Amino acid sequence: MNEISLQATRYRRIAVVDIETISTEPGVPKGALDGLTAQVICVGLMIDDGVRLTERAIVNEDEVKVLTEFWATIQPTDVLVGHNALEFDFPILRQRSWIRGVRPSRSVDLRRYYTADVKDTMCIWTNWGFKKGVTLDALATALGVGQKTGHGVDVPDWWAVRDLRSIGEYCLQDCWLTYQVFCKLTYQEPRVRQSRPELPAITTGRTQKPAARCRRQARAESATLSDTMPA
Length: 231
Known about the structure:
CATH architecture: 2-Layer Sandwich
Number of domains: 1
Number of strands: 6
Strand content: 15-25%
CATH topology: Nucleotidyltransferase, domain 5
Distance between the termini: 24 Å
Shape: globular
Helix content: 25-40%
Largest sheet: 6 strands, mixed
Structural class: alpha/beta
């Protein structure tokens, strides 16, 4: 891997991507992990353009809006970065775009070993040894760049009460960890994350649902997800 070619510039940005999904079929085990039964409710983006780091959390109850805004945000020359992204995030984004009829703004080469479009920090660390996978939390801890502050199993509960802000904050925190891991693995100095009192550039849906319905849906959706939900 040529680390110099992975330096961010205005013409070739580094775009870190992380998604959050929920199951549209409460009776399907791990339905949030399958493109047939998942719904993308959030896409977190952390973009390094060689000068500054820009954050964006795209969160909405309308999956079409989430997908459309994601494809409108990334550029054809962006290097896409994620953790377990070649196995989960980008296949799900492509599959849900097919299902929803959302036309991507660019092609994304998802070939194992050969793709120059996607840099997967899990694959870099394990040298493509998927049977020796490593969680984002474990890798970030080992590299000394921080730890996760939340858990994916909380997402269905937040979704049930339409706490979209918590979902967006959690997603962006994973993006930040992934960005720091990527910089560590490519011998780069991460840019400073801007501290703001409010979550930057978040797109949200409508207001909360009635409490009783929220509690019922939270219990149903939580039961379908396991503790192994991807970072």
